[in-house]
Amino acid sequence: MTKPASLKTFLWFQSNLEEALNFYKETFKDVEIYEENRMGEGAPLFTADFSIYGQQFIGMSIEGGPVFNTAISLSIQCDGQEETDRLWAAITAEGKVGQCGWCTDKWGVSWQITPVQMRDYLGNHDPEKAQRNWQALRSMGKIELSEFVA
Question: Taking a C-beta distance cutoff of 8 angstroms, is the pair 17, 45 a contact?
Fold first, then answer.
């Protein structure tokens, strides 16, 4: 019997996958760790299969590989300003602030934190308001719903 193909995002951490997973478990409300592998008893975590909000990942921790960049980001669409603020604060505490909701955590993983309500503003039926909202978005780091017009 053959198993169907599956798709997972592979994340190559330069160091300390275990620290990253602990941070993700603290930051995101829905993290599951399915498997952890070490290269010997007491050795640092080498690989792990995990999910965040149901999205499947494989993480590996070994120095010398490619570093993360912003060409690919993980997009979290959350409900409301409060959750946007909470996630943004956690990720940027030791990471970097970007533009239009993008930010980078301390390991270099790029995230986009956007409230689902933003779509209502950007897709406003009044073209002038929609354009104003798109311009406001381009000036933001963290998304601020109060800066959009209804």
Answer: yes
Q: What pLDDT is stored for residue 65 in this prediction?
A: 86
Average pLDDT, the chain: 96
Q: Nearest Cα to 68, choosing from 110, 31, 34?
A: 110
Give the N- to C-terminal CA distance of the chain in Å, as an integer: 55
Same domain, yes or no: 52 and 80: no
| pLDDT value at residue 15 | 86
84, 114: one domain: yes
**Number of residues that make up the chain:** 150
Rounded CA separation 33/80 (Å): 27
Can you name the residues that pair with 109 across neighbouring β-strands?
A: none
pLDDT, average across residues 55-82: 95
Distance CA 65, CA 108 (A): 13
Q: Residue 37 sits in which domain range?
A: 8-64
pTM: 0.92
**Owner of token pair 């933003």:** 118
Whether residue 18 lies inside any domain: the answer is yes
